[in-house]
Structure formats: structure tokens, C-alpha cells
Amino acid sequence: MTLCGPKASGVVGLLFLHLCYPWDTGCVALSPSSGPLPRPLRLQGPGAATGFLRRLKRSWVWNQFFVLEEYTGNDPLYVGKLHSDVDKGDGNVKYVLSGEGATSIFIIDESTGDIHATKRLDREEQAYYTLRAQALDRETNRPVEPESEFIVKVQDINDNEPKFLDGPYTASVPEMSPLGTSVIQVVATDADDPTYGNSARVVYSILQGQPYFSVEPKTGVIRTALPNMDRETRDEYVLVIQAKDMVGQMGGLSGTTSVTIMLTDVNDNPPRFSHKFYQYTVPESLHVESVVAKIKAVDADLGPNAEMDFRIVDGDGLGTFRISTDQGTQEGVITLQKPLNFEERAIYSLRIEATNRNIDPQFLTLGPFSDTTMVKVAVEDVDEPPVFALHLSEMTVSEAAAVGTIIGTVTAHDPDSANSAIRYSIDRNTDLERYFNIDATTGTISTAKLLDREVNAIHNISIFAMENDPSQIGKGIALVTVTDVNDNAPVFAIEYETFLCESARPGQVIQTVSAVDKDEPLHGHHFFFDLTAQAVDNHNFTLRDNKDNTASILTKRGGFRRQEQSLYRLPILIVDSGSPSLSSTNTLSIRVCRCDPDGVAQSCSAEAYMLPAGLSTGALLAILACIFTLLVLVLLIVTMQRRRKEPLILEEERDVRENIVRYDDEGGGEEDTEAFDMVALRNLNVVQDPMVRRDVTPDLPSLFVSRLAYKTLPDNIIFREFIWDRLKEADVDPSAPPYDSLQTYAFEGSGSLAESLSSLDSLSTDSDQNFDYLSDWGPQFRKLADLYGNRERKLWMF
Question: Where would I find the Cadherin domain in this sequence (predicted)?
């Protein structure tokens, strides 16, 4: 089999199956690839050598074809030719092509074996195609040769420019870097075949960014081209880098990218003050820790490289002022450490130094990285309040001191040069009881009331010192301690409750008492106990002073009986050790009780027999008090529930909004007494009385005057007057609703057949009926008798 093509590959082996004819340009014979053939085959064709060769397996094998990519011709591109030595040229053999792109990209002439590419090929999309070829008998369609595989390789052309897949780039390099410092490496890729020609061999060049930076042609490494580039002069550079294939030769394709290079900061600039001298003025009343001034040193560097520390290196205000660094603004903050006094010093001078905190040793030659300036602080005089010689004056006074006793004196002065006169006063908020007075001119403090140490032992009073200007007030404190005198007698420490068992033996201690004294002697309390003169000779009890401010009460006899005497009162005399000494008589109540064998009191006094077991008198009283309180609460609740607030108006109020009822009932006129209840109507002689309040006595004369007035009016204006009167009543009625409402009145003119059925109308008539007999009917009819029995009084009795 023979494979012919315009760019056939090299042939493997030396044994040819068929010779190419001279007119088959570019035809190359292929040899078997499976080793030497034992059976020799005869070579045919012009110029072929005589002899026979015998083959073992197959008579045609080939390797690969080469097809140029991006073919732009109109006719199909000729790829190559297949030919088998079995093919005698009589048309009995046909060639079949299968595999990648068969029939869609590659076609074969089944008679001649010519292969053509019908589509434009792109190596970057697919670099090679694997195809299979087979020679078949045209009549039987059976293989005359085994199927073989070959490759069509797409040969590359330079049709892709280099591309920077990671661009554009951003990089940084420290300022002041030496020449040749590496900044960044850029990489361009070319999609062409790197193994064929120079289509993918790229070189780099810089189009923009010189003379500051350079790029290595082969590696794409960008380096600094100038030494000591200063960020403070220029901090950003934009480079344009080109990558060109074909080793940069003419005709090669190229691509570009941008590289932005930032110069990062280094500490190469020292701080500098804008001025060599600063002056500030502060009032002498400025509080300690207040800010006096802020100064700033300028550093062209950034971030940590611009951080600095301030300190006072010299001057006469070292102890009065302090300077610190504001970390946010990098300013030097001068604060006051001691109070200022214009009269003592009016001007302070400070020499302040600012030094970089982070110094780079490699730039020490650019130093020093510090700067100094002078600061002058002038103190401004202000009107200051008076100042006390002692802010806290401690004084003592005896609680026995008489009114007007001088305790001590406070002094204050005007710190200003004017030295104004001072007036003193006591802040009465600290001396509400007005125990003390102060001389306004001298500042002498004296007592205004008698003092009692036991009520208040220490008085903390505030003293005001004022100049002529009342706004300038100085404040001092006088701490007055009231010393003790022996003016309180000792008494029992507690209210003792002593129980004496009926089985007590003579000499038995039944109680130990102690005493307290409100006074506080310097050497402590020492009390003496004894029975009063009246109780010394009693036959029941005796007292023993324990010499430790306590005393024991002992029995003189036994055989105490509750039935004989249930309560004993023993007067005890207590004397203190003061000078002069004071004493008091305290009575100890001793109750005789029945005790158990352990000496615990069970019941005391005769009343105890009538008490329930386990309950004392106090417990019963508490229970009774609780029961009484509960009964009172129940009664209050019942009373509150029964109370009902009665309306002041006798007639019940009605809400008539939208309560209009329509009746389609037409009567037969006034003669028709069946269709309408004539009694429900009122005659003009009986007008509806205004609503009467329970808490107001009705005015009867005015009531009848208003009734009689309608009788004197003509019939044509009766209704108008009646409506106007009712409108006025509704306007002034406090119980009328605050919204628009419908008012209805049962009122007829003088021609109505309905007469008034009210007995009240009889008061205004001339009826001769006598109702005096109602007085004889008893108290139930007393009200009616008052109304109708006496004609002269009935108007006022209503």
C-alpha cells in the first residue's frame, strides 16, 4: 500500500511495498512497521529492482499526514493519497475512511484514495485527528487488507498574538530602592504551537514607563531603572508592557498590558515644626489637666513612619506643664499639671522636641529625625475668689459651752493684687439648726445654741468668703467636734423580763443586769450597782456587783408562791464614774412562775390559768385584732356595693339619635277616639313641666307663671312660643346630650278635645272641691293634705 501526500512524514523501515511513480509529486512509500518480513514480495513499477519479497501480515501501513491550518482557498484542501498494492487499477478495490472528522471534515475518493479536507482547520481548537482507512472489494464489500489507523496532524501557523491572562497588573516597591530592584514579573501566553517554529516564542519590551523601570526581554521581570525614587515627589507609575512572538522579529504578533506600580513609604523624612517659636495665653483659673495648647510637627511620611513623640527638653515649666502625643492626629498636646498663679509667675518658657518613633537605620544618613521649637505660655490675670489659709479648720467645743462661746477663727485673703476686703458667712445648708454664728468681718465662729454631743458629736459646716463681687466666693470647711461632759445617768442596757421559779433556792442567781450611758468618758465606762436604801432590808432578794459593769440578782429565801405574790419590783441604783458622778434608779420586775424540772417557766401570775394552752395574752390580742380588721373590711365592701349613684334628674335621659319610628297608621281625626289614645295628648293648659332636680327646690311661682302665659296667647303663636321656650331649656340644660338630638313634646292647641288628666292642674283652677279631709287619714296622706288641703299654702308646699 502506498501513502502519498504533499508533506508525508518519514517512513519507518527500509522495506517498501510499492514504488511511487515519478509523476506522483511528493509521494512517499511506507514500509511495514512490524519488523522484517520472512516472505519476500515482488516490487512493481518503473525502476523497481527485479526479485521477490515475501510478506507475513499486511501489505500497507502508514503513519501520519500534515495539513496546514487556516486554509483560505475555495477548493477542498488536498491532504494525501491512499493506495494498496492489491489495487490493480481495475476498479475492483474501493477505499473507506472512518474516525474523527470522517465525512464531515475529511473525505476520500473511494476509487483513487485521494483525501481532501472540506473545512477550515484550526490547530488551537484541535491539533490532530485520528482516522482509520480500509481497502474493500467493491463487489463483495469484504476487506482486502486489514484496517489501519493513521493521524492527520494540523500544522501550525502564526495566527495568535500573545496575551497577558493576569493583566492588568498592580505592584508596589519601596521608595528609595536601589537600581535593579525586582518589582513584578509579567507573563504572556501564545496559543500557537511552541514546538513548531517561532510562533509561540515571546519577547517582552516596555513601551511606557521609561526611564524609571525596565523589563527583561525573556523573563518579563520588571525592575527599577533609577535609584532613590522618592514617593513624596511621585508615588504612582503606569507602565505599558508589550509581548511579541516570532522572537520579536518583523511580522510577529504582539499584545500589551498595563502595570501600575506604587511606591510605598519608608521613613526617609524627619519631622519639622512649621515655626520655631509659638506663644499661647491661658487664664490663671485654668483647671489642672486642662489642655493649654496643641502643636504639630509636619512629617512627609505616612503611617507608622510619620509617628512621633513629643517631650519637653528644657524650660522653666517642666513641672507645671506636660506634653503628650495625640495618637490620632500626631499632635503634641500640652496640659496643665499644677495650678497657675499670675501673681507668682506670669510667663513660662518651654523647649519642645519632636522625634520619629520608628527610625530606619539605613536612612540615618538623612537625619537627624527630630526637630525642636520654643513655646511661650503667658498667664492671664483673672479675678479669683478668696482663698482660705486652711481649707479645713478643725475646732473643738464642750457640749456644756454657753451660748456665744467663741470656738475659733477662720481666715481668707484675696489672691489678686487688689487685696479686697473679705466678708464671711456660714452656708446654712450645712447648719440647718443654726448652732453657730460667724463674725462677718473677723471670721470668728461662736455658738448660737446649746450643744448636745449625744445628738450630734461632729458639725461639718461650710464657710463662705466673699469679696465685693458676690460672684467671687471662696469656700472653706470648719469641722467642729463637740467634747463630752457627764450629763447622762446610766440606765439598764435593756428592758429586763425576770422570771422566778417557785422552786428557787436561797442564793440562786435569777438575773444579771448591765447598764449603758450615752456619755463617752475618756477612760471608758465604769458603773457601780446597789440596791436603794428602801430595798436594802428586803427579805426576798439581794444584789452583787460583779465589778465588770454587770450585777447579779440573787434570792435570799425560797418558797415563793404565785398565789401569795406573783410580781416583785426591785429598785436598783446605778452610779457612773464621771465627775461629778450621776446615778439613776431602775426598777427590775420579777415575776413568779411555775417551772418545769429544768427550770423553764411554764405559767406566770394567776391570769395564766385562764389562758388557752400554748397561747400567750399577746398572741390572743393579735388574733382578735386581725378578726376585727377583717370584719371592718367586709362591711366596707358590702356598703360600697349597695351604694348606687342616683341621677339628679327625675326623668330618665334617653338617647334619641336615629331613633325615629315611622307609623303608617292614619286615624279618623279628633272624633276618632279608637284609632288614637286621646289621653296620651296634653292640652295647652297642661304643659310638660321642666325636669325637676332632686337637689334643687322647684320655683313654683315661676312654674305657674310659665303655664298661665300660654293661655293668654293667640292660638297661631302658641306652638311657636312653646318650641322657643323648649329650645332655650335644652340649651341651658347640663344634662342634655352634647350632640344634635331629637326633642319630642306632647302638646296640643286650645281646640284639642283631649283634656289634661293631671291633678296638678287643679291647683290653677277654681275647683270648689275641699281636700281638708285628707289630714284625718293619717300620716300616709300627710303629703297630699299639704298639697290640696290648704288652698292658701298649697303653692308653697309643692
Answer: 84-164, 165-273, 274-388, 389-492, 492-609
